[in-house]
Write a structure and sequence with these properties.
The protein has a domain at 56-92 and 153-291. 57% of the residues lie in helices and 3% in strands. The protein has helices at 4-13, 21-30, 72-103, 105-109, 119-130, 134-138, 144-147, 155-174, 179-204, 218-231, 247-260, 270-288, and strands spanning 236-239, 243-246. A two-stranded antiparallel ribbon has the order 1-2. Strand 1 and strand 2 form a beta hairpin. Helix 3 (72-103) crosses helix 9 (179-204) and helix 8 runs parallel beside helix 10. The longest helix has 32 residues, at 72-103. The chain crosses the membrane at residues 83-102, 158-177, 183-199, 211-235, 241-262, 274-292. It is found in: Membrane. GO terms for molecular function: serine-type endopeptidase activity.
């Protein structure tokens, strides 16, 4: 018994010349068994009925690949969410670099071109429009409630927040949350964090409370962390890169620490963290619980 390929070649050699030679040959070859050159499974086109454990610790904080068990629509949304996450990172980076050029004249001298604005004027403009304080709100600069969530002055603060933003943003990508919902969550959590900071300063009434300013994406990131903890509560995370613990435990620990240190005079705006955390929980209950997580299905 000849193999299928040799039988086809033998049959083709006995065929008379004809204008239908190539058509007949193609039909003959199509009957041959096909070989698969890869054993990788194809991405399903429908949502899987069984739950797939999300080992997010293998992909965080630099995950860009989405869950292969998402539907086509969710898969496309997750790709767009990745772009939205990069835009948020870019905006934070741009304002951070602007602050560095405004505060450090040595950095401006390294540029191959001359800045079109004096750095002192730039520093004054940034302070008025990107730092949150009760005085800035009283002066009519209400947009600082949002712009302060894109502002960082120190390198350590900037790197830690961008690391966390990429980490928890990757969870949104993995669950197929759309770009509009990701940006809305960031802005809602930023507003919650800013309002929490202002309320806490007003309640304590310490000397100079009205001119005490704050900046940073920590409140917005705490809101994203709250949603991530609700969506994937048992995903394995590494606290400080060392201690393994579930995501819900790590996020809850952050909230407890902020609550304990709320009234201590530290350089960290714990009230902004808690305000963003509460806004994130509200966003999950109202609009994001349908993506899964800890919310009971019967509610």
């Amino acid at each position: 018994m000849l193999p299928p390929l040799q039988r086809a070649i033998s049959r083709m050699s006995r065929m008379p010349p004809s204008s239908h030679f190539f058509t007949t040959s193609r039909q003959t070859l199509q009957k041959l068994p096909r070989r698969s050159f890869t054993n990788l499974p194809k991405r399903p086109t429908t949502t899987a009925k069984t739950k797939t454990p999300l080992l997010l610790s293998k992909f965080l904080p630099f995950a860009t690949r989405t869950n292969y068990h998402l539907s086509d629509a969710a898969y496309r949304r997750s790709r767009h969410t990745t772009y939205a996450l990069r835009i948020l990172l870019t905006l934070n980076t741009t304002i951070f670099l602007a602050w560095q050029f405004a505060l450090n004249p040595s950095l401006a001298s390294l540029l191959p071109f001359t800045l079109p604005i004096d750095r002192r004027i730039l520093a004054r403009w940034l302070a008025e429009n990107t730092l949150l304080s009760a005085a800035s709100i009283s002066a009519g600069r209400g947009w600082t409630i949002i712009t302060s969530a894109f502002t960082h002055q120190s390198l350590g603060h900037f790197l830690l927040n961008m690391f966390s933003l990429q980490a928890f943003g990757s969870v949104m990508v993995a669950f197929g949350i759309g770009p509009a919902k990701l940006v809305s969550l960031y802005l809602l959590s930023a507003i919650g964090g800013s309002l929490g900071f202002l309320y806490h300063k007003m309640r304590r009434q310490q000397p100079g409370w009205d001119v005490s300013s704050a900046c940073g994406a920590s409140g917005a990131i705490m809101g994203m962390a709250a949603v991530a903890g609700c969506l994937a509560p048992w995903a394995r995370m590494l606290l400080f890169g060392i201690v393994p613990m579930p995501m819900v435990g790590m996020v809850g620990l952050y909230a407890v620490v902020d609550t304990v240190l709320l009234d201590y005079n530290t350089s960290i705006a714990h009230s902004a963290h808690l305000g963003g955390f509460g806004a994130g929980l509200l966003a999950y209950v109202v609009g994001l619980r349908r993506f899964g997580g800890i919310w009971p299905k019967w509610l």
